[in-house]
Structure formats: C-alpha cells, structure tokens
C-alpha cells in the first residue's frame, strides 16, 4: 500500500516516515510539510495518508483526502464530538474509510481496555500518570479517558471507600468522574500510566510506560493497514485490536 | 440460596463459612468436616456445596452431590483432564450444574486473561511470580498456566529475542512453552504474579498481589451464584467473568 | 531483660505482648491496661516498658517510669518538640534512658534514610503513599517527614522542573516543602510508600509496603534492646540502625 | 578544568564529548580516536582524560596519562584486581590521581549501597535485573556485585528461608553467594535492576531503571571533578558519593 505523511518533518511525522519506509507491505508515496500542496498525494498515488499536522490544518487536510479517495489516519489531538461527526459525514458522503486515533500506543490502549474490564470487580481504583516535566496540563488526556472508562464500568456499584476528612493541600488527586487521578511530572519519564485496583487482601496493578515515540509506530502501521481494508470511520485504536 | 461447605474447619473452608454467613443472598445450610455424613447436606436443604477437602475425598463428594441435586463448587486442587471429564459425565447424567475452579482469585484470573490478550502485541514477555518461602514447588501452577496462555496467543509469531550465550547458573528462568518464568520465594509475600511485556520503547506490566486468603472469597461467592443459575459444568473462573 | 507493656490489649499492644513472649532474650514482666496501676511494673521487676497507650496517658506513664528507673520505649504518636524536650529533661534528671519512636517499621525508616541520601543526585522527586481507606488524614505523617528530608537534602539545588500551567482539579499532589506528595486510599493497602526519583534517562524508585502490623515488631524489639544498653534519650528508629 | 576524551567517536565517548561541552566548569581539550597520538592531550593542556576505549588499549593509555600528569578517569570495563594494582602503582609512582569506575550510573551505585545497608534487616532478598535482549551474558555484572554486597552484609545471619524441593526447570534463579538472581531479557529495557527485600508483613523494593546512556553523564562529570581535587586512586563511584 502507498502511504503519504503530512507533517513529515515534525517529531512524530519524521518517525512515521521511517516506520513506513521500514514496513515491508508499505511504500512511502509522499512526505509533505506545511506549505506543500496536497495534490502531491494523488499525483504520487497515495492510498492512505497519516496526518500529524496541527489542529488548525487537520480538518482541511481530512476533507481534501476523503474527497480524493485517500484514506486519512488522523493523529492530530483535540478531536471533539463535533469534529468527529464532521469527519464521519465526509466519510459517508465520499464512501472513503477514515480513522481518528487519539492514542497510537497499543500498550496504553490495552491498559485502558483492561482497566475497564477489571473496574467492576474491585472496590477501589486510583490512577497515577507520569510525564516529562515540560507538559503544561495535568492530568493527561489518557488518564482522564481511563478514569471515565472505570467510572462507566462501575455504574451502580458503591462509591470508593474513603474516610479522608483532612487533606488541606490536595494530596488525594483530581477526581475525574469520582476516580482519583494523580499526576507526576519528572525528568526521566516520557509517558507512563498506572492503574491501582484494590480489594480485600489483594491488589491488581496495570502499568504502561513509554520511553520513546517509536513505541507509537506499531499502532500507526496497524491503523494504516486497517483503514485500507475497512469501511466507514474508525475512532480509537481499541476498535482495531482483537 | 442455601449453601453447604465441605472441609469447613480447614483454612480455606473456615474462611468460606464466614463469607457465606456474610453474604446477604446466602444462608449457611451445613458446615461439614472429615467424618461428617454427606446426608447432612440434603437434610439441611443445601442447594450448592463448596468443597475445600482433599484430592482423595473430592471425587466421592462430587459424585454424591450431583446425584442428590446439590450443585458442587470444587476448589480442591489437582484436577486433570480425566477428573474433569468424569465430573462432566456425572453433571450431564444427573442434569445438575457444577463448577471446578482451580483459582478463585478474580484478580489473578483477570491478570491471566489480560496477559493472553496482550501477548500478540509485544515481542517480549516474561513472568515473575513470588510466593511465601514454605511453598515446595516452583514455578507456581498459575505462572505455568499464564505462560501457556501467552505462548498460545503468540503462535505463529517470532520467538522472543534473546542473545544470551553464557548463563551457567540459570538466571534466565524456567522456559514454559518458551516463556521465561522466574520464581521468587520470600517472607512477606503470599501469592503474587507479574507479567512483564516489552516492545520498542515501551513496557506493559501486569501485577497481581494477594496478601490474604480473604481475597479468594469474592470469587467463591461468584462461583456459587453462577452455578445456581447455569447448567452443565463450568471449568475456571474466567468463564464466569464478563 | 524483663519488659512491661502498656496498652496491652490494644491492637499494637497485644502484638507487642506476643513479640516479647517470642523473643529469646526477653521476658514479659507485666501487661497493663487502662486502669491498671503502674506499680505492677516495678513489682514485676520490669527494666523497660513499651507504651502504646494514648496521647492523654503517655506523659504521665513516661514520667512515672523514668522516676522508677524503668526505661520507656514510647510508640504513642503525636510527640512534638515540647513533649520531646520534657521527656529529655526527665531522662537527664533521673539518669534513665528512654526512646521515643514515631515509626517502628525498620523498612519505612530505611526508605526515608535512602530517600535523603539519594535526593541531591536527582533533579526530580515525588512521593506516593497508599493507606487503607479508613485513614482520616492525608498525606501521612511518614510521607510529610520524607518530603522534608528530601527538601533538606536538596537545599541550594534548583527547584524541580515543572511546566504545569493548567491543573484545575489538583492532580499534582500536595507540595510539602516543595516536594509533591500524592495520597492513595484503597482497600487492600495497609501502609505503603514509594519515592520516585527521576534523572536524565533514569529512574530510582524506593518502595516500602506494610501488609501487617507484625512488621513493626522487629523495630519494637530493637528499640527495647537498645534502650537497655544506651544512655539518655533516643528519638526515632534511625539512630538505632547501623 | 580542561578535559580530554579517548574513544571519542564511540557510543559512550561521543556522549561524554557532549556532556563535557555542556558543563560550565569544563572545557573539551581534545577528543581522540583510535590512531590519534596521545601527545595531543598534553599539547591541548588536558588536565584529566576520560577513557572509553577498549580493554586492549586502556592500560597503555592510562600509563601514558599518569606519566604525563594527566589524570585518567577510566570507564573501560573488565578491570580485575591485578589491573587495579598496576594502576595504583603508577598513580603512586607519579603522584598523579586516577579513577577506575566500573559503573558510572549514580542511581545504580546508590541502589547497590542501599541494598547493602538494608540487607541485614530482612530475612529474604532476591535480585531481578532486566536488560535489552542483545546482551550475551547473564546475570549482569552489576547484579552479581549487588548479590555479593548483600551476602557480605548478612554474614552470620540465617540463610534465606526456602522450602523449594521441586524446581526442575530452574525458575529459582542463579544463586550468587546464596542470593537468588533472576535475569530478564526483553525489548524495551536498557539496563534495570530491582532488589526485593521481604520481612514478616512487609517488603522493601529498590528499583533502578536506565533508559538512555545519558544517565551515565552526571557520574562521568562527578568523577572528573573529584579526580581533579583528590590524590591517589579511586575505585568505584561509591567512594565519590556522600
């Protein structure tokens, strides 16, 4: 399959270029940067395009790709329900498959899935995420998403037990749908997440740790392969895992 | 539901008696020990019976229970394929449901399930189990079972990379179906298991830790409830989890 | 050596009674409870006394013991500088040794010591403590003490890097002398603490986990032995470790 | 201070060149490779020289440096007692300080020190080391050294409890001076080590994790600074830490 890359000189984009070049079943059709015309994709026969540009550019790119039968795999962050609905509309209209993937780490996505499956069996659950200290927001989007999945899986069950009366300096974490989330910011960490489940006399701890953005590439290649053999819009890597 | 307990004065049995007494939807029908006649179960109206006796007693107990329409939940260890086939035969013959559960820890069973689901996405996987130092065999049955699940899920994939040429004192663990298993025996541990998955620039670590046999009780109660509303033979807690 | 126990029917006190009975070099002289006269200690020939009573009783007990040449080992919590000064005065006046020990866990005390030693070599450090969900205050006293030791060891060094601008729900932990402290409250935990140090391309993680109050007994026995062969007042288990 | 680097185009050497260039109190005097004459060091006014060449070259380099009053900091591996004695002789003869450092990771060296300090307080201890799967020997030199420190600190204490009778496939690890050492080889790991201490009802776990050779640079710079202000031969980073 012939694959284009948008945002090809950025940190993620350049890693994707390498990964596509290294994949036996793919060929790099075109590596485009800010300013390059999208027509180069069709001229080069791109069948799919991986987009790691910016929130301001991605919607235009995606519309163009779908209308020219190039299947977009979108890694740009910040897709809300409205943007997803818009892309779904274009995909249906054009009959061209697309994928919007908020997190390309297969490990992180598996951790979220497992957390959702385990949640109903444990009376207690807390999330600890750790990222590099240059990150400006806390907690991470992945942690918020994981907390929501845990809360959803526990609907109807008793609240977490917690007798804390005195915590003047907020050591008990942010409550996201009732699930405590703690954020660590430390040199030596890239992107890590742990979910601590506790029950009477036992603990189940799920831990994922990314130390390099190379860890996202198996997820990117998986999404490209799947968008080529599916129809319609895929949202999230989880749908693509067995 | 009215529940009997066999082996009721043993360490696990007595904990089960407490758990049944504490469950709102259950009543303790009878707590029997070595020497007590099984007839007490039917006299007391037991609908299900939890068996934590010994390998030499369990088959007789189970046959009797099934033939008297008391649903057995068997926690005695060491059930091979032959014993399972025999119990399945009795269950079909009598039309009475039964459950044989090698591990009642919901957490440990979830960890095994997750390990099986994750295995195909990572090039490397190793198991580290830790138990109290009075355990006479290594590695643990749960670790062996987990290794087999990982190996099965990776069928057809490349072997784990490992350039080790020199390891004269066997530090690389036992290979169970090719999966390295390391056993720790240390004071302060009861029954713990970790699975370490590794991929390019990332790690997924699943960890379960039992510090008390109370941790098995949610699994025992779940098995009792399920054997009451199902038909046929259930083998393993995994079938009973969503 | 002959040892008395005050608060002998409490949870900690009764465990101490067992531990003294099990120690080859000790004899239980007297096990006293609320209401028992302290004279029983001297009548029974107690040389040392372990006090696990309450803040309202401990000062009176300690003064009495010191004035009767019985060496007190005080495990009651909440000793501030004033109380320590008072006990030191009594100890000097009477020439009788004493020990005030805020934390009898050798493992927890070693962890604090190691954290203090490591702190100056790492640009980042955060503390995660986990306790049972019945605890009413957060973070734990041990975590606060550990944070202070880390802050002191890093005096003059740059602050921890942290670009967080947006953390509306307080996921970044309580800052204790500038050190982030996160508190987990979960079933299945008794008293645990982790210190996460991070540096360029590396992490050092120190973790201590108590699952049973039996873990405090080696520290209690050590303190008794040391108070018998030392002079003056000892504050904290750290002074008693090599 | 003016610093030379030998083996400057190797993986470690080139990282040292960067680190020296980035240190405010250092200047890169000369970066030499295989074939370059050592005289360049003295011509460039090097006061110290970091050697990351090979076992076959390092002794000649070190003798030359000491005889020309350039203080060597040796990072080449495989220094036995004989080599150390030889370097010590040259250092004494010439009155020039030198350092032989088997492990430049401050974190790894601290972990070993802490393990040695904790060992006598716990009845059980095991080591788990994890490295990339291209490593050909197991267990790692650091793990062997850590095991020896633990064994030495426990001299005279009871052996680790271990009732294992049946372990046909060697899951219990290599015994190094009686301390079990388990070696994991997995993609995603660079160089990690954990020491698991266990006692009645408690665990102390020390964990160090290197994900990048940049983690060795603080140790290299520390050794250079210390060799400039000390006399005689220093062996090991531990002597240089407070």
TrEMBL record, chains A, B, C, D:
Q: In which pathway does it act?
A: Amino-acid biosynthesis; L-lysine biosynthesis via DAP pathway; (S)-tetrahydrodipicolinate from L-aspartate: step 4/4
Q: Where in the cell is it found?
A: Cytoplasm
Residue sites binding (S)-2,3,4,5-tetrahydrodipicolinate per the record: 132, 141-142
Catalysed reactions listed for this entry: (S)-2,3,4,5-tetrahydrodipicolinate + NAD(+) + H2O = (2S,4S)-4-hydroxy-2,3,4,5-tetrahydrodipicolinate + NADH + H(+); (S)-2,3,4,5-tetrahydrodipicolinate + NADP(+) + H2O = (2S,4S)-4-hydroxy-2,3,4,5-tetrahydrodipicolinate + NADPH + H(+)
This protein's source sits in the domain of life called Bacteria
Q: Kindly indicate whether the keyword Oxidoreductase belongs to this entry.
A: yes
Q: What class of enzyme is it?
A: oxidoreductase
Coiled-coil region(s) at which residues?
Answer: none
Every copy of the Dihydrodipicolinate reductase N-terminal domain together lies at: 1-104
Supply the EC number(s): 1.17.1.8
Which SUPFAM superfamilies does this UniProt record tie to the protein?
Glyceraldehyde-3-phosphate dehydrogenase-like, C-terminal domain, NAD(P)-binding Rossmann-fold domains
GO molecular function of the protein, one example? 4-hydroxy-tetrahydrodipicolinate reductase
Where does the Dihydrodipicolinate reductase C-terminal domain start and stop, copy by copy?
A: 107-241
Q: Which UniProt keywords are listed?
A: Amino-acid biosynthesis, Cytoplasm, Diaminopimelate biosynthesis, Lysine biosynthesis, NAD, NADP, Oxidoreductase
Residues that bind NAD(+), according to the entry? 7-12, 33, 75-77
Annotated catalytic residues:
131 (proton donor/acceptor), 135 (proton donor)
UniProt record similarity statement: Belongs to the DapB family.
Tell me, what does this protein do in biology?
Catalyzes the conversion of 4-hydroxy-tetrahydrodipicolinate (HTPA) to tetrahydrodipicolinate.
Assembly and partners are described as: Homotetramer.
PANTHER family documented for this protein: 4-HYDROXY-TETRAHYDRODIPICOLINATE REDUCTASE 1, CHLOROPLASTIC-RELATED, DIHYDRODIPICOLINATE REDUCTASE
Protein's name according to its UniProt entry: 4-hydroxy-tetrahydrodipicolinate reductase
| Organism of this sequence | Salininema proteolyticum
């Amino acid at each position: 399959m012939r694959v284009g890359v948008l945002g090809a000189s950025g940190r993620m984009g350049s890693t994707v270029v390498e990964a596509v070049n290294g994949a036996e079943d793919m060929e790099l059709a075109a590596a485009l940067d800010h300013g390059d015309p999208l027509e180069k994709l069709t001229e080069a026969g791109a069948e799919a395009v991986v987009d790691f540009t910016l929130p301001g550019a991605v919607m235009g790119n995606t519309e163009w790709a779908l209308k020219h039968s190039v299947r977009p795999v979108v890694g740009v962050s910040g897709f809300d329900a409205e943007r997803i609905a818009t892309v779904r509309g274009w995909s249906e209209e054009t009959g061209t498959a697309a994928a919007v993937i908020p997190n390309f780490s297969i490990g992180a996505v598996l951790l979220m899935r497992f957390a959702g499956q385990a949640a109903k069996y444990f009376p207690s659950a807390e999330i600890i995420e750790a990222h590099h200290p240059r990150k400006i927001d806390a907690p991470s989007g992945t942690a918020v998403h994981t907390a929501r999945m845990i809360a959803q899986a526990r609907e109807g069950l008793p609240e977490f037990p917690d007798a804390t009366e005195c915590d003047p300096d907020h050591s008990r974490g942010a409550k996201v749908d009732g699930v405590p989330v703690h954020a660590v910011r430390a040199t030596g960490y890239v992107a890590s997440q742990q979910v601590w489940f506790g029950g009477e006399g036992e603990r189940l701890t799920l831990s994922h740790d990314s130390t390099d953005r190379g860890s996202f590439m198996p997820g990117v290649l998986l999404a490209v392969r799947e968008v080529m053999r599916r129809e319609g819009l895929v949202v999230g890597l989880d749908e693509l895992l067995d």
